[in-house]
Amino acid sequence: MAALGPVENRHILDLGCGMGLWTTELASSGATVVALDVSAASVATVRKRAQRFDLADRVDPVAASAHALPFADGSFDLVTGHLILHHLDAGIAAREIARVLKPGGRAVFTENSARSGTLMFARRFLCGRFGIPRWSTPDEYPLRRSDLRRLRAPFAQMTTLHPRFDWFFLLNAKLFGFRNLRVSRVLDWLDRTIPAVLPFMRRLAYYQVIVLQR
User: By Cβ atoms counted within 10 A, which residue in 9, 131, 174, 176 is the most buried?
Assistant: First the structure.
């Protein structure tokens, strides 16, 4: 939310809205939100959720592809999404996002990152084996530097932020399932301490916030 800036009275596109948790958070903060997802079932869920929270007048659910956004040029003040870009063609999605943003508008996404060789090794060779769960689907790909360059191309500026390290959060989720409180506390401490002591490690975090300025 901090990277988005003030959202009150802003017209926002929530790209890949899923079940609409972020959609309703934005609408509750005073924004009008178009909640877009390729899944008609997800869009129906968002519509019901908006009605349940008395936000139907602020939420417009739309079933469509992010590769061909059904909106006029310059329709939105802000575009946002959570773990959606790595399902898409980065170049096509970036051009569509830039097109529907107003001049000076901003797009903010929380995404994964392929910058850590250690994490990519674990993803490729360990997840799905040895009892370690694999959560990703075949169409997913952690964003590489080449993908970031394609995202950056139609925008005036791009910034990447790494507010959390999350190596040990992932370790906890995959191996321990957060079942041991003492282990969870130690791993959380490591996630907070390592990037604080070694700031250069932040860029190797699995998650990143991508800010694109029109």
Answer: 174
Burial 48-75 (b: 16+ CB within 10 A, else e): ebbeeeebeebbbbbbeebeebeeeeeb
pLDDT tens digit sequence for 179-196:
989 999 999 999 999 999
**Segments making up each domain of the chain, as ranges:** 65-213
R_g of the chain, CA atoms, integer Å? 18
- Over residues 126-141, the pLDDT tens digits come to 777 777 777 777 677 8
d(CA 5, CA 204): 25
Instruction: Locate 27 and state its tokens.
Output: 């609408």
Helix (H) or strand (E) holding 14: strand 11-15
> What's the fold here for domain 65-213?
Rossmann fold (3.40.50)
Answer whether 0.90 is exceeded by the pTM: no
Residues, the chain? 214
* Distance between CA atoms of residues 93 and 48, nearest Å: 27
